[in-house]
């Protein structure tokens, strides 16, 4: 039902805070609004629009063998809908946090990444943090497998010049969420594959 405008703001060096935002309109000529109703053409400032992806880091915890990983200054993206598969894809270039093992020799090195996007119940695109892998077979979770401990990233709305580091939440059997951003969780539709988080920081579909 919408036309979506994806755009990048801030500087694209590793510590310049580059990030991707999105606004939408019923008309291809606009006005393009964010979820708060701001017209991004006239509101002014870098923190208008729905922040889709910024710098983040999933930290390495004590006892973990997997290294820390994340992205820094993602931007200059393309959005693509593949009619054959019904998937929304997001392609962007990104740099890496200094702690990343992907490019430890240069903070300004960059690569291109492809991610899957999903359209939530409010009609906004949301982005998988992991690079695209088809979800089918054994890597599709049932609702009773969703409970457990998670590293949690909240991108917020601000332009951040350093990577947002992960915190921790737990999705519990009683549908409570405990940890750094407590609240509740439950299935958001009849598909039994999507959840809704109602947390202190906000509601997420």
What is the chains' assembly state? single chain
What is the helix content? under 10%
- In sequence order, what are the helices and strands, one letter per element? EEEEEEEEEEEEEEE
Strand line-up of the largest beta sheet: 8-7-6-5-4-10
The radius of gyration over CA amounts to 17 Å
The shape, in one word, is globular
The first-to-last residue Cα distance is 18 Å
Overall number of strands: 15
How many strands, which pairing sense, and closed or not: the largest β-sheet? 6 strands, mixed
Mean pLDDT: 90
Number of helical elements: 0
Strand content: 35-45%
Structural class: mainly beta
Key terms for this structure?
six-stranded antiparallel sheet, globular, six-stranded mixed sheet, 205 residues
Structure, explained:
By secondary structure, this protein is mainly beta. It is built from no helices and 15 strands. It has strands spanning 3-9, 19-25, 50-53, 56-58, 69-82, 87-95, 111-119, 125-127, 148-152, 164-165, 167-171, 176-179, 183-187, 195-199, 202-204. The strands form three sheets. It has a six-stranded mixed β-sheet, with no helix packed on it. A six-stranded antiparallel β-sheet has the order 9-11-12-13-14-15, with no helix packed on it. It has a three-stranded antiparallel β-sheet with strand order 1-2-3, with no helix packed on it. Strand 12 and strand 13 form a beta hairpin. The mean pLDDT is 90.
């Amino acid at each position: 039902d919408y036309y979506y405008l994806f755009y990048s703001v801030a500087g694209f060096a590793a510590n310049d805070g580059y990030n991707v935002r999105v606004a939408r309109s019923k008309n291809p000529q606009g006005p393009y609004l964010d979820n708060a109703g701001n017209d991004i053409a006239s509101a002014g400032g870098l923190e208008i629009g729905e922040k889709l992806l910024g710098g983040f880091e999933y930290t390495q915890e004590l006892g973990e063998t997997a290294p820390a990983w994340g992205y820094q200054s993602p931007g200059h993206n393309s959005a693509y809908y593949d009619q054959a598969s019904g998937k929304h894809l997001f392609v962007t270039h990104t740099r890496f946090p200094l702690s990343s093992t992907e490019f430890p020799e240069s903070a300004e090195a960059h690569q291109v990444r492809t991610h899957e996007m999903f359209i939530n119940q409010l009609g906004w695109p949301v982005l998988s943090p992991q690079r695209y892998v088809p979800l089918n077979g054994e890597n599709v979770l049932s609702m009773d497998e969703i409970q457990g401990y998670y590293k949690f990233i909240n991108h917020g709305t601000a332009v951040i010049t350093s990577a947002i580091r992960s915190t921790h939440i737990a999705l519990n059997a009683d549908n409570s969420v405990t940890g750094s951003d407590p609240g509740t969780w439950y299935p958001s539709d009849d598909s039994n594959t999507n959840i809704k988080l109602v947390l202190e920081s906000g509601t997420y579909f």
